[in-house]
Design brief:
Blueprint: H1 3-46, E1 51-60, H2 76-86, H3 94-101, H4 110-118, E2 126-132, H5 135-141, H6 151-159, E3 161-166, H7 169-172, H8 185-216, H9 221-234, H10 238-252, H11 260-284, H12 288-296, H13 301-329, H14 333-337, H15 358-366, H16 372-402
Antiparallel strand pairs: 1-2, 1-3
């Protein structure tokens, strides 16, 4: 080959390498742009759900309506509604009063109730109470309302002081049919209980199976069949595991429907192949010389595996296990099949109580027609993504903490 031909070939190779690098950079930029757009869109839509509006209302606590011996038994919502209507004396028709009351939340009197219970000496006085506004009024003050008739809301804004607060009830309340009262606490607790069952069952079984298959099992036709089936199960659609849970745990064993116990069992089956594969890969990554050296100084096979190979493989095993749990935390389809799609207003107290999980809660809210649930859905996605980021962060921390160089 002449020097000229060689130079042309070299130039061509360098040009191909530059194009390859350019393609990679373009792919990375496009991926980053799409991801950033998605995150910004979710935050933009979900941020209003973390804020709520209250009206600072002057309320007279009539002693004839509140028993000092038992102030919790009084009808505070009726007291608040009376004070509310007194702010608009000209609205006397039934239709006007109904429209006026619709601006108050069903939970409007809870702050006042707690205020009087904490200090019964307020009975007989006129106090300023923060009353929660309904979803329609709240959306209007957030600038998200689509209502054309805003005359009453404009008047409300001029006559009564409107205050803005952080909506802690989004994280402390259970689910509700009223958008301003709906919260994620029940779904978060349900997710934690469900993943706890999956972790308690899937983690030890997955790691034990990986250790046996990689270090102790004989290489024969049966182990080959088991390995092929484990790899195939890792690729099976998750809804198949839901059908398995429906047929086995609910129909055959009669376990409680919509319970974290059943959901955890289904998710344990789902993540078990992933944990086994990740754990086997971590064990296989340990240099054989480590085990051979342990055997050479008199250690038994079991001692060489558990005292030398397993500690070095632990970072990879923990990383795979936590990522498997993160996948379980974000699963929806298998849990729909076992009834965790039901409306659950109460926070579950045990593994057998009816519950739902965060992904299913997102699915339920996204299907509701009220405009307020749109921002609630995006806010729930933000909470779910935050939890998944934390789980991935824990995986990275554990990998760095236990990682050993050889």
């Amino acid at each position: 080959m002449t020097d000229t031909a060689y130079q042309k070939l070299l130039i061509k190779r360098y040009a191909a390498e530059r194009r390859f690098r350019a393609y990679g950079a373009i792919a990375l930029i496009l991926t980053s742009v799409f991801l950033l757009y998605l995150l910004v869109d979710i935050v933009r839509k979900g941020w209003p759900a973390f804020v709520e509006h209250h009206a600072a209302l002057e309320v007279t606590l009539d002693a004839s309506q509140i028993d000092k011996a038992n102030p919790a038994a009084a009808d505070y919502l009726a007291i608040v509604k009376d004070a509310w209507r007194n702010q608009f004396p000209d609205l006397s028709s039934r239709t006007d009063r109904k429209q006026l009351n619709s601006l108050l939340s069903q939970d409007a009197a809870e702050n006042l109730r707690q205020q009087v219970i904490d200090n019964p000496g307020l009975i007989g006085q006129t106090v300023k109470a923060d009353v929660l506004l309904s979803d329609d009024a709240d959306l209007y003050f957030k600038g998200l309302s689509q209502e054309s008739d805003t005359t009453l809301l404009e008047r409300l804004k001029k006559q009564i002081e409107i205050t803005r607060h952080i909506s802690w009830r989004l994280l402390t309340n259970g689910d509700s049919r009223e958008p301003e009262l709906a919260g994620l606490r029940g779904a978060i607790v349900g997710s934690l209980l469900t993943v706890a069952v999956a972790l308690a069952l899937g983690l030890p079984l997955g790691i034990a199976a990986a250790i046996y298959l990689e270090q102790f099992a004989l290489r024969n036709r049966w182990t080959d069949v088991i390995e092929v089936n484990i790899n195939n199960l890792a690729a099976v659609p998750s809804i198949i595991f839901g059908l398995l849970g429906l047929a086995m745990f609910l129909n055959l064993f009669g376990m409680p429907r919509s319970a974290p116990l059943v959901g955890g069992l289904v998710l344990a089956l789902l993540v078990l192949p992933t944990i086994i594969i990740a754990s086997r890969a971590a064990l296989r990554a340990v240099p054989p010389s480590i085990k051979e050296a342990a055997l050479g100084v008199g250690a038994s096979h079991q001692q060489a595996v558990f005292h030398h190979v397993l500690p070095l493989a632990l970072p990879g095993i923990l990383t795979g296990a936590i990522l498997g749990m993160a996948r379980a935390f974000g699963e929806t389809a298998p849990l729909l099949m076992i009834g965790m799609v039901a409306f659950i207003a109460d926070v579950p107290q045990s593994f057998t109580d009816a519950a739902t999980v965060l992904p299913v809660q997102i699915y339920l809210w996204s299907d509701l027609p009220e405009l307020g649930f749109q921002s609630k859905t995006a806010a729930a996605i933000m909470v779910l993504i935050t939890i998944l980021f934390l789980l991935n962060g824990i995986a990275i921390y554990l990998r760095k903490k236990f990682e050993r160089r050889w």
